[in-house]
Amino acid sequence: MTAFNAVRFKVKPGREQEFLDAHKNVHTDWPGLRHVNIIKTGERSYCIIGEWDDMESLAGARPNMVKTLDSFRDTLEDLGGGLGVTDPAAGPVVLALK
Predict the structure, then answer these.
(1) Where are the beta strands (DSSP E) in 24-71?
(2) Inter-residue long-range contacts of 60-63, CB under 8 Å, 24+ positions, other chains counted
């Protein structure tokens, strides 16, 4: 069943282009990854949304996701509340509306 993941980030002042460029340089033909987009959700706030074939594909890509995060981690602010620099969520589709 199709799965999605979303990861929220807050970028340090003056580092937004560096954050975006880091993603342009990522090799993202990971097995099971259908689509991935970055959306701007506010002032220096971004969210990456990934669509996957299934949860197994998503779980199998986690080492690649961590490696990618490590390549731009220094551009990110701590989100507070014990979250660190990311706020991830993932799960299978339980109701497709369109």
Answers:
(1) 33-42, 45-52
(2) 60/31, 60/32, 61/30, 61/31, 61/32, 61/33
pLDDT higher than threshold 80 for residue 66: yes
Query: What single-letter amino acid sits at 92?
Result: P
pLDDT of residue 17: 96
Looking at every residue in the chain, the average pLDDT score rounds to 95
Q: Which domains does the chain have, with CATH numbers?
A: 3-91 (3.30.70.100)
pTM: 0.91
Output phi, psi for 63, to 5 deg. -60, -40
Instruction: For residue range 4-44, list pLDDT tens digits in order.
Output: 999 999 999 999 999 999 998 777 789 999 999 999 999 99
Give the Cα separation of 21 and 44 in Å (integer): 15
